[in-house]
Amino acid sequence: MAKYLAQIVVMGVQVIGRAFARALQQEFAASQAAARARSTSGQESAAASSITGMSLQEAQQILNLSTMTPEEIQKNYEHLFKVNDKSVGGSFYLQSKVVRAKERLDEELRIHSDQTQKSQKNSES
After folding, report:
1. CA distance 43 to 81
2. Residue 64 near residue 81 (C-beta atoms within 8 A)
3. SS (H, E, C) 10-25
4. What is the pLDDT of residue 84?
5. CA-based R_g, the chain, Å
6. What is the CATH classification number for the domain harbouring 77?
7. What's the rounded Cα separation, in Å, for the pair 114 and 116?
8. pLDDT tens for each residue of the chain, 125 residues long
9. What residue ranges are annotated as transmembrane (predicted)?
């Protein structure tokens, strides 16, 4: 009787072990696919942050943006650029930060539009 009980326990452990290993393989494959999908945008965005010396979040904070639309970026940029003009008592440092923030956000919009175009071309194929 104990022999049969041990065999049942061993079989149960084997079945659960195989199911667990299969689930791990599927999860690993899914995470690899997600990483490949994100890698191009993440690398380009990181490169843009490195080149401009400003992160995307910092640029959004400087221009006081909640949504990243080209119209809102331009509107906030123009306002902050004029307000910080040295001739009206503004700060050249802050004005240059505003310019760098707009450059960073424009680069991010370009990256997103490039990715959208690539995905549309892939879906058409």
Report:
1. 30
2. no
3. HHHHHHHHHHHHHHHH
4. 92
5. 26
6. 1.10.287.110
7. 5
8. 888 888 999 999 999 999 998 988 988 887 777 666 665 556 666 666 666 678 888 999 999 998 889 999 999 999 999 999 989 998 999 999 999 999 999 988 888 888 888 777 777 76
9. none
Q: What one-letter code names the amino acid at 119?
A: S
Range of the domain at 14: 2-124
Q: Give the Å distances, CA to CA, from 48 to 16, 35, 52, 85.
A: 47, 19, 6, 26
Look at the chain and report how many structural domains it folds into: 1
Residue at token pair 């290993």: 21
| Residue with the two structure tokens 């910080």 | 84
Residue-wise DSSP of 66-114: SS--HHHHHHHHHHHHHHT-GGGT--HHHHHHHHHHHHHHHHHHHHHHH
Residues in the chain: 125
* Under 8 Å between Cβ of 78 and 88: no
Cβ-Cβ contacts under 8 Å for 95 (sequence gap 6 or more): 80, 81, 84, 85, 86
Q: What is the pLDDT of residue 4?
A: 86
Q: Are 105 and 65 in contact (CB under 8 A)?
A: yes
